[in-house]
Amino acid sequence: MKIWVDADACPAVIKEILYKAAERTQIQVTLVANNHFRIPKSSFIHFLQVPHGQDVADDRIVDKSASGDLVITSDIPLAARIVEKGGLALNPRGEVYSEENIKERLSTRDFLDNLRSSGVDTGGPSALSPRDRQAFANSLDQLLRKH
Prior knowledge:
single chain; alpha/beta; 6 strands
């Protein structure tokens, strides 16, 4: 198993959890982003910069990942593509996307997109709380233990 991170939108605190997990478990973590940022020196942590553009990072993650890999993302269409490919997807709040729930998540996302495009203010996600960070760490640990 490898871990791929949709890193441009991934909160720094989640990246820190992933860095520690990479060292502890010796699993390769690759952060994919349009913008360059620093990562710790480690043989288990890698950075892949992609050109700017809509879905360029997502496309690269789908292309490079394999069945059984884990992708960290809050992007539901990317999560759906990964699940369809046989991978696992986990969002920064600790929710695992699976074949059982991804279609519902996509429908909700599309519904909210339609509301926003018609001028309805649907609000955005709340800030990542300590409870969210703990849920992410717990879900990550469970997935790593299973695989």
